[in-house]
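Instructor's aside before we start: the two examples that follow are unrelated to each other. I chose them only because their records fit on one page, so don't look for a connection. First example below.
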Amino acid sequence: MSDKAHKVWKEERTLYQYLTPAIKNFEETTKRLLENYTKVLFVRHPFERLVSYYRMMFHFTSFESDDVSGISWHLFNRVRRLFHRPMIPRDRSKNLTQLFPFRDFIQFVIDHAKNTKDGSWKVDGYVDTHWLPISEQCFPCQVRYDIIGKLENFDEDLDQVAKHIGIRQKILYPSSMKRKTYGHVKEAFKTLSPQQITELKRIYSRDFKLFNYEHDE
């Protein structure tokens, strides 16, 4: 095991040990947290989320360390099995966009929405959260969030969070970690069919409405 992989494993093991008591008393812990803690939710344009996740998982081979590339290959093989495609040998020198184009990923997301709804497929909570609608994960209609910010206005909204919890010092988010996907969304969506885009608008309709996003931004 590489040093980086060992570090990731150790951090996840520590996090699991820390969270285990909370998981065992989930309802009690959730109630206490919702009543006593500041609740903040950051959202992102649904289409940008899809492109960002695809690029992170399947395009940036330099980013794909032992942990991330494993997730990429896990998802690719899952799609391959569900779509009855042949086994393909893994080649770490190539990114997966050649084997798994963006339009195929989007078709999987569309099929995933339909088949998990009728029970044909199971939700994989470890991976699927990256594209599932925020409204289905964070329950903005049930949870009274103190602040709902947007990744598109992250610096300004982060200032509001800091003020709300009493932090006077300005929080500077590293430029290297800020969103870089916006300019790639239109190009990626050019590869989709009109039917696929219509289906995506339907799947994320609640997110568009709740968080005041436009389809054609």
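Example two begins here.
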Amino acid sequence: MAIRRSGRQESSLGLAMVATMVGAVLIGTYVLVRPPEVVRFADVAWPVAAGLFMAVTRPLMYLGMARGPVAVFAPVFGLTMIAVPAVIGPFIGERLAGLEVLGVLSAVVSVVLLSGEGGVPRPGRLLRSPAVGLAVVVGTSIGMGGVFLTQAAPEAGELPALLVLVSGLVVLPVFHRVRIGTFRPDRAVVGFGVVLGVSSGTAMVLSTAAYLRGSAAVVTALIALAPGVSVVIAWRFLGERLYLLQAVGGAFGVAAVVAFAMAG
């Protein structure tokens, strides 16, 4: 809504920059009040790497939501991000259980049906869809960020979440300056950015705590429920149409999330 109101797709960078800044201030204050017990090199290096992924991903995610259709973009990126940790898991000591394999297969079917907008898309059309392509990039990046965060220790507390956002603060203003020509964000997105910063900062603390204590595949699967809310909002407030096959695809998506959660 913020990007559509500004009328400029480039404002996604400013929106991401403001949200990241607000989130970093909130989490930084929390870390000062409750500093980590122990900090290892891995507790710094892996969250910084995750933060660099997120810095690129955040404006792309907002841009994808603005371009729409949200009913395609949100579920595809959500299901992609739960498939990535499940596939990478065996290489970092997190082997796939039978239910996790079922979850990956359900996610693939869901992506195909959700991206069809009323029909089963041909492979060529699916690959050429800008919404699907961008959603896969965003989902892959978020999934990789989740995998990186699992390499930090729970004793690091909220420091990994702070480092993720601080990494974004280093990169995003540079991107904004190169792309827009100024460090100042569009005034139309500042208010939305503050709200996003508060909500996403809180979500970042909670999700990071979960990643540090659990399986990347399972935690990411549960977080992936969030795009479903975006689909409902797009249908209710943005006037986007939902089709029967997309509802079936959503059911497969729910099955994928349930399979991952039960496997954990």
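The CA atoms of residues 14 and 38 lie 34 Å apart.
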